[in-house]
Description:
The protein is globular, with a radius of gyration of 22 Å. Helix 1 runs parallel beside helix 10.
Amino acid sequence: xxxxxxxIVGAGYGGIMTAVNLQKQVSPEEANITLVNKxxxxxxxxxxxxxxxxxxHHDRTRxxxxxxxxxxxxxxxxxxxESIDPKSKTVKLEDGELSYDYxxxxxxxxxxxFGIEGLEEYAYSIQNINSAxxxxxxxxxNFAQYNLEKEERQDLITIVVGGAGFTGIxxxxxxxxxxxxxxxxxxxxxxxxxxLNVEGGPTALxxxxxxxxxxxxxxxxxxxxxxxxxxxxxxCNEEGIIVEKDEEQEEIKSKNVIWAAGVTGNSIVQESxxxxxxxRVPVRDDLRTPDYDxxxxxxxxxxxxxxxxxxxxxxxxxxxxxxxxTTAHNLKQLINGxxxxxxxxxxxxxxxxxxxxxxxxGVVFDDTKLYGRSASIMKKxxxxxxxxxxxxxxxxxxxxxxxxxx
Length: 406
Ligand code: FAD
Ligand code: NAD
């Protein structure tokens, strides 16, 4: 193969880190590398809940691709992928077509609504910069509207978050911190505002350390969060949501319903005919798809099993970044004519969830539990380490969370 074409689709954690690794390891004489992304920026999905709550501006979260990718080494195409044809080795874009010798799919996640009626139409979800910005503005608009109504409209200042997984809990924590500011800005009495977190399972953060879950729930309840555990969201409509607990249904009126109760792989992958398991490709050990030797999948479009628990690893940025290292290494092997590929071994260094800017919970390294300020410092250190890996000290200084104590 003469100077193979490597195409990377999606510049999330997995895609952009594959590109950044390749630009260090592969010279333009060895391969022609193209990165395709919808926007001219990469964003840190792990900060989107802060943008959605309005506690962090989205310009802190997004990073211009030109600032981290060397366009002398990598062709950047700003376009939207419509489909992939692995048989003819082509990627169909909104505005053209690309052919590849090797493809890396890093198109990320989509919100999963499990067919629940009305969610697509009436609920919001945290998926990207545009949707996060919309949630922030939508909540703010409803607070602004509240004092213009002749009759009291509780639904305008009731915020419902569906799901108490990590996304739901992190978002609810940010909203709880934002509410006092919104109340002051729009002259809304704090005691009138309701913030509910509705979770179908018996506990928040199922499977996480119970002591830390209790800490998080206590801290959030102190800030006014009402937890509804064991309560399934059944329906969403213009008025709000219908929930069910112990076979009893209840309507909660709210103009601010944010669905944070699950994600799946980008539907383009399934629609393009790749084998999927609940929307994600069950990749081989070397991160290639089961059927195609020239297609790698990184990040949330891939699923890998944890042999200890016999369950899939939860999709995380941590795993996506590590997958990018293995994928870049394996691509380098292939273009050098060496088919001895590395097996991907996730190195889970822990899980830390933020509860606002100065509070967090986490289990790191060998089961060390952290909460409060120390966990929050750890969370910022993890995020800062990523920025350093992606774009060096310059990017860290520009976008990092450098104020560890506030
Ligand atoms: P994504 O980050 O999903 O990015 C996909 C990219 O592809 C985007 O740039 C998008 O614009 C682009 N794209 C999508 N469709 C197209 C298309 N059709 N054409 C062109 N481009 C396209 N994980 C952790 O490890 N730690 C955390 O603290 C953490 N916090 C989180 C907080 C929130 C609020 C959320 C929602 C998730 C969090 N996660 C966290 C999970 C983590 O964000 C995901 O696992 C991670 O983002 C997956 O990375 P990815 O590379 O698969 O793609
Ligand atoms: P999740 O699947 O982890 O949690 C979804 C929650 O919604 C579950 O608790 C589920 O019981 C609940 N739920 C589902 N249907 C419901 C219904 N009809 N009514 C009420 N509740 C319902 O999803 P997530 O929180 O979006 O997380 C997605 C991935 O991102 C996970 O892998 C997670 O680990 C990762 N993530 C990690 C972090 C972190 O490490 N700090 C933060 C956010 C997300």
